[in-house]
Each structure stands twice: as C-alpha cells, then as structure tokens.
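Q: A reviewer asked whether we had any structural model of the full assembly, not just the individual parts. We don't, so I'm hoping you can provide one. Inputs are below.
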Amino acid sequence: MELNYSDRMGGIKASEIRELLKLTVRPEVISFAGGLPAPELFPVEELKKVSQKVLEEDGQSALQYSPTEGFPPLREKIAERMEKMGVKTAADNILITNGSQQGLDFSGKIFLNPDDIVIVESPSYLGAINAFKAYQCKFLEVPTDNDGMIMEKLEEALKTKENIKMIYVIPDFQNPSGRTWSLERRQKLVELANEYNLPIIEDNPYGELRFEGERLPSIKSIDTEGRVIFLGTFSKTFCPGLRIGWVCASDEVLNKYILVKQGADLQSNSMSQRELDAFLDVYDLDEHIEKIKKLYKSRRDLMLETMKEHFPKEVKFTHPEGGLFTWAVLPEHVNARELMKKSLERNVAFVPGGSFFPNGGNENTMRINYSNMPENRIVEGIKILGEVIKEELK
Amino acid sequence: MELNYSDRMGGIKASEIRELLKLTVRPEVISFAGGLPAPELFPVEELKKVSQKVLEEDGQSALQYSPTEGFPPLREKIAERMEKMGVKTAADNILITNGSQQGLDFSGKIFLNPDDIVIVESPSYLGAINAFKAYQCKFLEVPTDNDGMIMEKLEEALKTKENIKMIYVIPDFQNPSGRTWSLERRQKLVELANEYNLPIIEDNPYGELRFEGERLPSIKSIDTEGRVIFLGTFSKTFCPGLRIGWVCASDEVLNKYILVKQGADLQSNSMSQRELDAFLDVYDLDEHIEKIKKLYKSRRDLMLETMKEHFPKEVKFTHPEGGLFTWAVLPEHVNARELMKKSLERNVAFVPGGSFFPNGGNENTMRINYSNMPENRIVEGIKILGEVIKEELK
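A: Here is a predicted structure for the entire assembly that you could use as a starting point for your response.
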C-alpha cells in the first residue's frame, strides 16, 4: 500500500543533525555535533522547588488548558527582558512557542507560498532550512564574512530577483558559523527590508550568551516599522527540555502567529510556563546566565587553543564571542561527510557543514560545538579530530 | 505597513471556541462552552511526587533535548495501552505530540495539497477544521445519524468526487455531537477506504471515557493495511496542561509524522513526558479514569435530566454514552449565535453549533459541555439556558 502524500512531503528530509545525534548517544562518543547546552548547569534543584510551588499554589490551573498566547505573567516578564535588550514592546506582543523551532515553522506557514524565495545567510541554520522547506520555498544564499551577511550582495539579490518573501538571519553567534553581525550591517539590513517591504525573521537563541566584546543592538531594536519578527528561547539560558521559546512581533503580525498556533497545537505546556515564571520570580536568571557564560568561555578557549595546536595550519576556524559553535573550513578537496565517518570510527562526532547550505556545496566545512563536553573530552576529541584531518590531508 | 502573507493565511480564522473562552473566564460565567476536563480530578498530589522523582533520578536528562519520537519508555507504555484497545502495535509506531491537536496539524501537512478534499462528519470538530484549513483544502461533509457517518452517503461522495485525499472521523463520543459509530459503520468505513486507497484519521480523545454501554473496537483495530492513523491524547484522562498526545501509525506513515515533527518543533517537552511516564509506573491510570467516568456520568445524567425538564419540547438533544458533550438541535428558525449573545448576558455560555459545519449552515444547533461545571452550576445554567431559549421561541 502506498498512500498519496502532499507535494510538500517530497522536499522534507530527515535533519542530518538529528539523525547523527542518534549515532552519538553511545557514552563513549565525544560529541561536538549537537547544539546541546551543558547539562551540569541545568537548574535541577531550583526546578524541584518551583514545581512544588506551582502545584501547591496553582495546581489545577497549571494542569488545565490555558490561553494560546501563553501564561500572562510569563509574557510580561519576557516583554521586560526584551525591553532590557533595547526592544520597546509589551506582553501583548509576545507569543509563547514550543521552543523557537516552532516560531520558525510558523514563519514559513505565515509568509511562504510554493516557489517563494527566502533569503538566508550562507551558511544558515539547518533546522530553519528544514522548517521552511515544508512550505516548498526556494533559498537564496547571500555570502557572509566575519561581519555577517554582505550587504552589497543582499542588495544585488533584492534588485534582481522576484518572489523574495522574507529574510531569515541569526545575527548573534550565528549557527553554524559562530559569527556576529556588525552594527552597520544590522542597520543596512533594516533599511533594505524597509525599501523592499520584506519581513525579517531575527532568530536569536544565543544573544544573551556573549562572553567577550560588546553587546550589539538586536535588529528588532532598530526596526521602526514592525517588520522584524524576533524569535527568542530559554533553551540555551535555562534548559531546552521544557520547550519554551517566544515570538515578539507587532500587533498585526503577532496576531497571525497566534492564529497559526491555535491550529497547530492550541497552546504550549501550561505547567512548564508556570514553572519558568516561578523560577524567574524566585531566582536570578541573569546570575545563572553568568555561570553559563563563564563555563562556555573557558570551553571555547580550551577548544580553540587545542585546535590551534592540533589542527593542520590549512584549517581555518572562527573565533566566536559567544554562543555554542565554532566553524572550520578545510582545504577544498576535503569532504567533511567522509571525514565524519572516519572520526566516528574513533568515537568523535561533529556536523559536516554542507548541510547548512540549502543549495548544496561547501562540503569542506564543519560545525563544532564546545558547550556540551567536559574539558578533558574537549582536549581528547580535538586531538583525535586533528589526527583524522591530518590523515585526510596526506 | 502591510506585509505580504502567504495565500493560506486568507483562510485561517480565529477559532470561535477559543475566542469565546476568553469571554467566559469571568468567574461568574457558567460555561458549558469549552471542552475542559473537571480540574478537581487532576492528579495534583501525584504530580508533586513524580516531578520530584523525575528531577531526583534523572534531572539533567529531563531538562535536556531528547528524541523527536518521544521518551522511549512512554512510547512503550502507550503501545501497550493501544494493544489493550485491540490495536496490534509497537513503541516504534508511536510518536509523542503536543496534544492530539498537533497530530491534526501534521495530518493536514502530510496529506493535503491546495484544493484537495477532506471528508468529515457533518458536524465535525472545529479544531480539526481549522488545522486542515491551513493547508487550503476543501471539506466534504457527510451526513450523520445516531450511528455515525451514513455510509451510503460516503460511498456516493467517493464515487462522484475527485481530489478526495483523506477521511477524518471521531468515532467515539464525537465532538461536537456526543454520538458513537456502530460497529457496522466502522467496518464499512475501512472497506471503503481500502477500495479508494485513502488514509483515515481516527481522532480518539474520548474513547476511554465510556460510562455506559459496551466498548466498540477502534477503527485502527479493524484496519489491516496500515491506512488508519490513530490520534490519542492524555488530555482527557490525565490532564491537558502537559500537552501529551500521540500518533499511532504504520512504519511508513509514522516516519512522515516524525519528519514533520522535526521541522515543526524538534520534540515534545522532555520533563512532562518523564512525569507522565513516572505517573504510569507508580499509579494506576485506569483506576483514575474510573473516577473521571463516574463524575462525568453523574454530570451528564444531571444535565440531561435538567434539560428534559427545562428545555422546550421542540429542542432535541443527544444521549452521549461517554465523553464530554451533548448536542442540541433547536427549531430551524432559531439562530444559536444570537442565542449565545443573550445567554452570555445572563452569564451562561455554550458553543453555537454552526462553527462545526465547515461549509456553513445549521445555525440552529449548540454544543453543550457537561464535564467542567460543578453540579449546582449545571442545574442553574441549564435552567437559565432553558429560559433564554423559551424567550426566543415565543
């Protein structure tokens, strides 16, 4: 029996990262593949307390259906955090989602018809590419450098291509490259989006994890027309298992996201929203984030030093000022997918970078995560990876 | 500024029920509108214990990313429950979703191209209609009676219409009508779906809440070809706030749902899945369900008795053997939306039935919930509703 699926299913493939993660769950594997936070910093004890508090004080409501938009006090607190990031907004402009991945899916649903073009950084986040593909779009990759997307190239694309429907960017500690956009590029992006009347999806899962250099204003904070849709998440600053992200957008645009959420899953988890809200009442999230940044900075330093020492000189890699990833470029003839097979035989995993280019190519790249592995395994894994690469370059 | 949205957004409207629920949160309102379970039976104390247990024994994993498919021991337990319902299946055929609403959205995404036809019962569940509409489908409503969808009418439709892509049904204590399909109709439906090679979406949120009469086999248990996709949920038997539902389907079909879940939100809540799993280990869900059934039966009895006494004789209503709703049909000239405005003025709410007919009409119908209000408010609310209806019939 073969059922008739929708046309869109032809374009939906398994996320390579997710499939890969399945191979890396063996405890002997040193994995730089996932984008997993350091679990030793998860606030387990704090959650024990707040889960009791929520069930004690508000148990029946915490287990009942609740509004699509999200738990009002939590929306309030998120709006306040956004204000601190320079975005003038209100609780009414926040929708709680199941992680920011859901915000990506909704963005595709709201803006894309088949054959519409999404502008993305080259490379861009694989999960976003997969989410948008479900809406049968095409991708236009705009080249990037250490300051983010190259604006001349973007302008050229906007001038010459029709059917462009939205621009998707990760301006802070980008996934996969670890790079951060300069202020000038951020301003220019908003200008161009205004000129061409396009929505910008600003995906910002890592922005609060800056451990070096100065914070730059979010693109949403530069927007004066309500065309930037900001996707935030607590997955990297609190924990990913509770699946709490948010969309921040203007009234008109947010209303579309709310409508789509109604049909997609009615609402996010009532209990987890209250737990996070209680956590934010009782504990200091910013203090907690300081601990995360300290740990990630030391892991980044250790990883980059070890890479410098053990990777061949031909391999170039980025110096992220925050976030979870560095990005390595190998000599052009090296195929990182083949490399991955060999490194997995030696129990070390990373993500081959080709998956982050929706139109293919760039198989000589790799995304390497430094947040999840303890220090000794970072050193050991990078040494092995260095050996595997050297073997390949012979 | 007006952004360009996708074509599908033209067809997506706010769920009338959700909008209505906002008006009914005032504590003075006696609401028969929502499909809310009785919160006094939520296992609050049990959850306090299992949440501690999960965080104590497995805290870091419970807060980390976890597999798209769901927490393996929970999938195992759901497969066992499905077996008890007569469905031969395995943990590998279960995907955990954010409530069964997410299973509805995914079904639309997987099977529907624009202008494809979905066959539904007339009336059908508003949330499903809204979920499918996002994929720009059309609806063919097949008439129903007390035994479910009328098979002669279905066969006629299948013979004469092209572009039919799936059949969506709620065979047990249907939402909104409260009716249950006969065994013969279930068997015939599977036969016809086999003949026309169509998938059947069997939405079964209430099947375990039968408090009268004999359990009938699920449509999935009759299927021999793997074309029935069963949507289950713990929202009505445990609690809705944790948003745990599931899809049960054949390997090939489930794989599509898993792919779609990856792009839609990566995975469901890691913590809540473990809490439910621990609850099922420590407590007896079936015993808990017995308590729910006992309460709902007594509320149904009370409501139907009060309706018999206080509603004018011209109003007909169903006698549900389980589930959460009864369905009333008023004389044709009465508009239930107008009626609702008047009853809300007197602080009583229900859902006007017209919303459950995707192609319109039938404005003289109402869905009335009996699970959520305590006994005294059921009597008071039905009396007021009776008065408002009598006023309208004058």
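A: Points you may want to mention in the reply: Chain A is about 45% helix and 15% strand. The first strand of chain A starts at residue 30 and ends at 31.
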